[in-house]
Amino acid sequence: MFNSTVSKIAKASLVVAVLMGASMGAHADGLLVTDLTRNIEQSIGAQMQDMMQVAQRELSLSLQTQLAEAMFELDVSGTASELAQRQSETVITSAMVKE
After folding, report:
1. CA 19 to mean position of chain CA atoms
2. Which of 50, 76, 28 is nearest to 84 (CA)?
3. What is the distance between the alpha carbons of residues 92 and 43, in angstroms, rounded to a whole number?
4. How far apart are the C-alpha atoms of 25 and 33, rounded to whole Å?
């Protein structure tokens, strides 16, 4: 009788220990998934910030390049029109010379 009571208590204790272990394991798995999800979200957030910074830099450089090209073209066209004006003035003054 004593042995059967000890055996029942031992079996019950074993079942409780297994259930507690399974419960803690499931809880640990839940924590693992939560930590993994948080790490993935942080990683994605950091990568998106980096991508936005790179895109901003590229956009800024592109705009600067386009502005510089436009200013250069204006300068070249201004120089060309000045040269054309000088040549036309030279032609006009040379046409006025009496021969």
Report:
1. 46
2. 76
3. 72
4. 12
Question: What does the alpha-carbon distance between residue 8 and residue 4 come to, in Å, rounded to a whole number?
Answer: 6
Q: Report pLDDT digits (tens) over 15-41.
A: 777 767 666 665 656 667 788 888 988
Q: For position 91, what pLDDT does the model report?
A: 47
Query: Tell me, what's the pLDDT at 62?
Result: 92
The number of angstroms, rounded, from the C-alpha of 97 to the middle of its chain's C-alpha atoms is: 70
How many angstroms separate the CA atoms of 56 and 49, rounded?
A: 11
The amino acid sitting at 60 is S
